[in-house]
Amino acid sequence: MTFIKWDSAFETGITSVDHEHRELVELINTLHGKLVDDAPVEVISKFLGEVFVAISAHFALEETVMRKYDYDQYIDHKNHHEKLLDDVRDIMDAFEAGKYATYNEALSQAIHDWFVDHFRTRDARLYRKLGV
């Protein structure tokens, strides 16, 4: 099920980053599908953990790129990554606590907004600045 449609605006020109952006979109779409299909709580909880691991790895890659190109807003962007990881952990905790038990669309929307907003703000500036 397509929840986030791939958009060429998500492309950075860095093959490894673009590959991971595509993987993250696929993971988010898969998560949305599980929520819409009302998958068991344990399945969704485990999958949220997988999404968290993928996001963490992706942020590590982006931070490597930023250091390689001596990005002028590295610290700010890295701090934003940390905040976003905290946000995802909060989403996971809220799910575990039953906050999303009756309206899973809210969980999908939270993940969607998190991904799209980060890319359109921080990542877009990073890749425009790097010009790679």
Tell me the layout of helices and strands.
Blueprint: H1 15-36, H2 41-68, H3 74-96, H4 104-130
How many individual β-strands?
Answer: 0
CATH class: Mainly Alpha
- Architecture (CATH level 2) name: Up-down Bundle
Largest sheet: none
User: What best-fitting shape do the alpha-carbon axes yield?
Assistant: globular
Computed Rg: 15 Å
Note the beta-strand portion.
under 5%
Q: What share of the residues lie within helices? A: over 70%
How many helices? The count is 4
Any idea of the CATH topology?
A: Four Helix Bundle (Hemerythrin (Met), subunit A)
Instruction: Give me the CATH superfamily.
Output: Hemerythrin-like
* Averaged pLDDT: 85
Please provide the ordered H/E string of secondary-structure elements.
HHHH
Distance between the termini: 32 Å
What this model shows, in words?
The protein is mainly alpha-helical and 132 residues long. The protein starts with 14 loop residues before the first helix and ends with a helix. The protein has one domain (21-130): Four Helix Bundle (Hemerythrin (Met), subunit A) (Up-down Bundle). The chain is globular. 76% of the residues lie in helices and 0% in strands. The protein has helices at 15-36, 41-68, 74-96, 104-130.
